[in-house]
Amino acid sequence: MKKxxxxxxxxxxxxxxxxxxxxxxxxxxxSSQTLNGASSAQFSLPSGYHAFVVQFGAFTxxxxxxxxxxxxxxxxxxxxxxxxxxxTTVSFLTSGGVTGNLNSTTATGIQLVSGATTTLxxxxxxxxxxxxxxxxxxxxxxxxxxxxxETFGCRHSNANGAVNxxxxxxxxxxxxxxxxxxxxP
Length: 185
What we know:
- 0% of the residues lie in helices and 52% in strands.
- It is an all-beta fold.
- The radius of gyration is 15 Å and the shape is globular.
């Protein structure tokens, strides 16, 4: 029997503060974090959910850097940094009408953004966290400041089994802002 994986993009409010976290109908707010000069951000991905939504609110980094998303199969004790396990495809559109694509199979994580500091907001949906063979799919739209909209279609393959944690990691400097993790039953 042929199996088909259908991914849905859930649009959540783009503004998120430490005081107000809105849980859209049908989703469960699992965790929220307010970061101020953190070296990374981690979320546990509990069992019992088909997918997760990571919501970015006023997310910034302190210096020119590449921000990657990495996965763990052991609750965050170790992080998969194997470049061959990550495939990133990002399409972007700037406010000036310039379009382009970023494709990477050599990064040590899903490359979310690279370059000078700005403000990132939006949502990424992570699905198939229980599957190792087909890997995890990451889709979503992030607004990089006011100038660029990035649309993601990415994949992580993990020979070590299901993933149960995710982290955001800058290549240099620190990260700040508000993050929320929602579970989709």
